[in-house]
Amino acid sequence: MQLSDSFGRKFYYLRLSITDVCNFKCEYCLPNGYQHDKKNCFLSLDEIRRTVAAFASVGTEKIRITGGEPALRKDLTQIIAMISEIAPIKKIAMTTNGYNLAKNAQQWYDAGLNQINISVDSLNPNSFNKITGVNRFDQVMKGIDKALSVGFDKIKINSVLIKNFNDHELGLFLEFIRIRPIEMRFIELMECGDTNTFFEQYHSSGDLIKRQLEGSGWQLEEKAKDDGPALVYSHPGYLGKIGLIMPYSKDFCTTCNRLRVSSLGKMHLCLFGDYGTDIRHLLQRDDQQSQLVSLLHDSVATKEVSHYLHQGNTGQTPHLASIGG
Predict the structure, then answer these.
(1) What is d(CA 86, CA 286) in angstroms, rounded to the nearest whole number?
(2) Residue 193 binned pLDDT confidence (cut-offs 50, 70, 90)
(3) Which residues contact 306 (CB under 8 A, 6 or more apart)?
(4) Shortest CA distance to 42 belongs to which of 18, 76, 25?
(5) What is the pLDDT of residue 145?
(6) Which of 24, 42, 65, 154 falls 20 to 30 Å from 215 in CA-CA distance?
(7) Closest Cα to residue 131, out of 141, 140, 122?
């Protein structure tokens, strides 16, 4: 039976984190770098397989592999290949910082990866290096070129809007996608427990970009049932598209269609919710699937109508890397 909540929302999309480790030091997420916790033991291949199989049995059609940085797992290609064999999963996507995309894009695609999102917060190398804490702009750009040549169904670039930093770069990004079939997505900076000071100083609304697009001939597209939260705009003069993710906008949560499982085996109903429901104890044997499915239904039935970001309540998420953003 399709996973659905008490507000009639159906869930076709799972964001599955496979690690919370990251090798970048983005100011809005992990400004001091990843802090290792030796107690952490991330989901194994078998645990991932059982997770995906359970969600697939209750209507999930799209899996997004996230982190941290998922490419830091040495068995990433095996994970992709394993998920691709589970019916009725139709789409396998991944979000990455792109540090080794040029090297691995082909093998990930061959293993079954359909879609890829690359985080690029600025097309200015100096600004990119400043916000990420690493000098890898050229490396990431080469990865994007490689992804284009491989032939993914969708390639997206994620850019977190940061006041006085990249909120003036719309022209650069528009020129970039004029001749490239890439969806450029601007994501409003979101407040988390560990980054509230940065948020208060640098939050910028996506409304300005929205008005600029709508005033210059960009048209809003209809969403597919397993699409994420972005408002996607297209223009006949551009091969690429523009997406806006604005979690502080009115009715943002009404079309929610996604759930999250952390790299430690907790299901989260919302990025800004509570500590999550532990499902890992039901990922140890194949004969636990019926119990796991029952727990998924019971948990989703408790999903609230909305997050409470407007009230300053960011939930228990310390930073975006902790449950896959």
Answers:
(1) 14
(2) low
(3) 252, 253
(4) 18
(5) 98
(6) 154
(7) 122
Return the H-helix or E-strand segment holding 57.
helix 45-57
Domains of the chain (ranges; CATH) run: 13-322 (3.20.20.70)
Strand, coil or helix: 156: strand
* Residue 319 clears pLDDT 70, i.e. is over it: no
Is the separation of the CB atoms in 223 and 255 below 8 Å?
yes
Q: Point out the least confidently predicted range of 31-45, 112-126, 283-297.
A: 31-45
∠ CA 321-324-325 to the nearest 5 degrees?
80
Please say whether the beta carbons of 138 and 129 come within 8 A. no
Among candidates 106, 107, 146, 101, which has minimal Cα distance to 119? 101
Q: Residue 28 CB: number of other CB atoms within 10 A?
A: 23
CA-to-CA dists, residue 137 to 89, 198, 267, angstroms: 33, 23, 34
Pairing of strands 266-268, 231-234: unpaired
Q: Which residues contact 58 (CB under 8 A, 6 or more apart)?
A: 1, 2, 3, 293, 296, 297
- Identify the pLDDT of residue 199: 72
CA-angle at 158, arms to 154 and 162, nearest 5°: 165
187 CA to centre of own chain: 11
Q: Do 206 and 244 form a contact (C-beta atoms < 8 A)?
A: yes
Question: 318 burial class (0-12, 13-18, 19+ CB within 10 angstroms)?
Answer: middle
User: Does pLDDT of 250 surpass 70?
Assistant: no
